[in-house]
Each structure stands twice: as C-alpha cells, then as structure tokens.
Write a structure and sequence with these properties.
- The protein is α/β, with parallel strands linked by helices.
- It has one domain.
- It is built from six helices and eight strands; from the N terminus they run βαβαβαβαβββαβα.
- The strands form three sheets. A four-stranded parallel β-sheet has the order 2-1-5-8. A two-stranded antiparallel sheet has the order 3-4.
- The longest helix is centred in the middle third of the chain and has 17 residues.
- The chain is globular and about 45 Å long.
C-alpha cells in the first residue's frame, strides 16, 4: 500500500488560516497524491479548537516550540491572549493521525506557529522571521516524522510519486 503523507489543510485550499483564507497551492503533484488517497489533511489550529477567523499568534518572544511543548513557553496573540493549550492539543491530534496512518512525511505551511518547519515569526508581531519550528512541526519531528513545507515540494515529490 502506498505511503500516506500529512498535509496542511490550508495548502489543499481549505479556508482555515487565521484570516479565514486558504493558502491553496496549484500543484498537480499534490492533486495526484490527493486523488490517489495518499493525503491525510490536518489543521492543527482548528483541530486544537481555535475558530476561523482568529487572531494571529506567535510563539512567545525568545522561546522555541520545544519549550512550548515542555510547558515552559506560550503561544500568544498580539494582545497576549494565551492560545498555548489549543496549539499543543492540535499538535497531538496531528501526531495521532500520523501514527494511525504510519506516516513518515508531512508537508506543512511554512512560517506558521503550528506548522513552520524552518522559520517562524519572532514573537514580537513585527513580521520578522527567525530559525525555528512551529509547535506541530516540532512534535512531529521529535517523533521521527520528516516535515517539509510547500516551498520544498520539488524535493519531496520526487520521493513520493512514481
């Protein structure tokens, strides 16, 4: 049976982003995987209980997603509303889906406080990126799942498609 992959719902065109929009990407390779039944779609923020639309969040300034998962840091809105619990819950929902389907690869939304795999915003709501992962990307990585973002489709799709 072909390997399944975890994919952010916003990349598939679902309007689940914080601003109520999607980040749907027009890529025939993703469409081919979807039609083959190989994609398990997730939105950790929605799965964690956050509404659409919602206030944008960032991992607390100076902290990492690993610290959020360890209970030592928070995910906050600009008005300092604590959304940590929803982010951690959504990350665990994604991990459980990955385990259930024996998933080893995820394609998640770049720069997201949940899904970013290489860079996230700095926690000051200045639009500045820093190296780091989002909460879900961190939890998946800690559990041996390789996380890519939509800008890395060329490298990952070579491995996934015949």
């Amino acid at each position: 049976m072909p390997e399944k992959i975890l994919v952010s719902r916003c990349l598939l065109g679902d309007c689940v982003r914080y601003d109520g929009r999607s980040q749907g990407i027009d890529d025939s390779r993703l469409q081919q995987l979807l039609e083959a039944g190989r994609i398990i779609a997730v939105c950790p923020e929605c799965d964690g209980g956050l509404p659409v639309p919602r206030s944008p969040c960032e991992i607390q300034n100076g902290h990492s997603a690993a610290e959020v998962l360890a209970g030592c840091a928070k995910v906050l809105t600009q008005n300092e509303v604590d959304c940590t619990e929803a982010y951690v819950k959504g990350a665990h929902v994604a991990l459980n889906k990955a385990k259930e389907h024996k998933i080893k690869i995820a394609i998640l939304k770049a720069k997201s406080p949940s899904c970013g795999n290489r860079f996230v915003y700095n926690g000051c709501f200045e639009g500045k990126l820093i190296e780091g992962r989002g909460v879900t990307a961190e939890l998946l990585t800690q559990n041996g799942i390789t996380v890519f973002n939509e800008q890395e489709l060329d490298s990952i799709c070579l491995q996934l498609l015949p």
